[in-house]
Automatic annotation (TrEMBL):
Cited NCBIfam families: PRK06075.1, PRK12322.1
Gene, per the UniProt record: nuoD
UniProt organism field: Dehalobacter restrictus (strain DSM 9455 / PER-K23)
Record family assignment: Belongs to the complex I 49 kDa subunit family.
Major place of residence: membrane
Protein known as: NADH-quinone oxidoreductase subunit D
């Protein structure tokens, strides 16, 4: 940093700024072009989803989960319904076909979420072309969701004991077409952005997050694996049928903005591997277990988490034996991950902070809930 001292000034980053990825406000203390202090301000959406859960039945609350991370609706729903199934003691009653369909939807949603990350991160750096490429395949995935659930972004597809409906006859051929083109699409993504000299100069060695600091903050998901934390719930604490699939967990060591980017790119390729296996092995059979029409879990409490596209998404539910949760709290990866930005931003140029913020891949709907 320049040794010449100048008058410091405060600068608001957001909430109206498109690069804040939602309604986020960060207050930067600037000395020239460098950030000397960053203070996070969250809490502009005020939707109170956790409290809403306490006045809705367990089933009525399923659609609300799509409003958390609103680019990962299927994964949000899966985390919630698996938690309630664990509370009810019916996790082992989910039909085989339903479990495979859940894996298909989850990995499609992971790819779609990472494509939004890829596209928006490039756009934050004034790169419009990658946005058009990333949203091309994301739109195809949303078409698949529409075939299965009748909705694109807010699917309301997961159910206690399985899924809402079986796949129609158009779904599997459309999935096959997507899987066939994804390797070529991945080459295009890397060709447009990853190898770009300007992109590498703006990301390599920028906003490095050490393994120790990532652990201390409780960072999870791709941002943690970019800092050398080799941990993925699908492999290390498998839920559903993930122990049947062979895939690699991408891990990097530097923990800089580039590593956080490349881990997510590699994860998309691994999701394609999982989808290929699920496509080949999808069995016939029912897609919904016989569960009561009115869900009344026994009194008690439970916590369950899954490997979300942003990190570990967990639900803590307290039941009093009625049809509505007595208490429901969400441990969301975005809420945890954004905390480290206050340290990460210090010492960065203003424009580097914008890119570093994008590399955390947060969605404010999951933070201010």
């Amino acid at each position: 940093m320049n040794d010449i001292r100048t008058q410091e000034m405060n600068l608001n980053f957001g909430p109206q700024h498109p690069s804040t990825h939602g309604v986020y406000r960060g207050v930067f203390t600037m000395e020239g072009e460098y950030i000397t202090k960053c203070v996070n301000h969250i809490g502009y959406l005020h939707r109170g989803i956790e409290k809403m859960a306490e006045s809705r039945t367990y089933t009525q609350f399923i659609p609300y989960n799509g409003r958390l991370d609103y680019v990962s609706g299927m994964l949000n729903e899966e985390a919630y319904v698996r938690t309630v199934e664990k509370l009810m003691g019916i996790s082992d009653q989910v039909p085989e076909r339903a479990e495979y369909i859940r894996v298909i939807m989850a990995e499609l949603q992971r790819i779609a979420s990472h494509l939004v990350f890829y596209s928006s991160m490039a756009l934050d750096m004034a790169g419009f072309t990658p946005w058009t490429y990333g949203f091309r395949e994301r739109d195809t995935i949303l078409d698949l969701f529409e075939m299965a659930a009748g909705s694109r972004m807010m699917p309301n597809y997961m159910r206690f004991g399985g899924v809402a409906a079986d796949l129609n006859e158009e779904f599997m051929p459309a999935l096959r077409k997507l899987l066939d083109i994804m390797p070529k699409c991945m080459e295009e993504y890397h060709g447009i952005l990853t190898g770009n000299e300007i992109f590498q100069a703006r990301t390599k060695g920028v906003a490095s997050l050490s393994r120790e600091k990532a652990l201390n903050y409780g960072i999870s998901g791709p941002s943690a694996r970019a800092s050398g934390i080799d941990y993925d719930l699908r492999r290390d604490e498998p839920y559903g049928i993930y122990d049947r699939f062979k895939f690699n967990v991408p891990v990097r060591q530097t923990g800089d903005t580039f590593d956080r980017y490349i881990v997510r790119m590699d994860e998309m390729a691994e999701s394609v591997k999982i989808l290929e296996q699920a496509y080949r092995e999808l069995p016939e059979g029912p897609v919904l277990a016989k569960v009561p029409k009115i869900i009344k879990p026994p009194a008690g409490e439970v916590y369950h988490r899954i490997e979300h596209s942003k990190g570990h998404l967990g639900f803590h539910i307290v039941s009093d034996g009625t049809a509505k949760p007595y208490r429901l709290r969400i441990c969301s990866p975005c809420f945890v991950n954004v905390a480290v930005f206050e340290e990460m931003a210090v010492g960065l140029h203003l424009q580097d902070a914008v890119v570093a913020f994008a590399s955390l891949d947060i969605v404010l709907g999951e933070i201010d809930r």
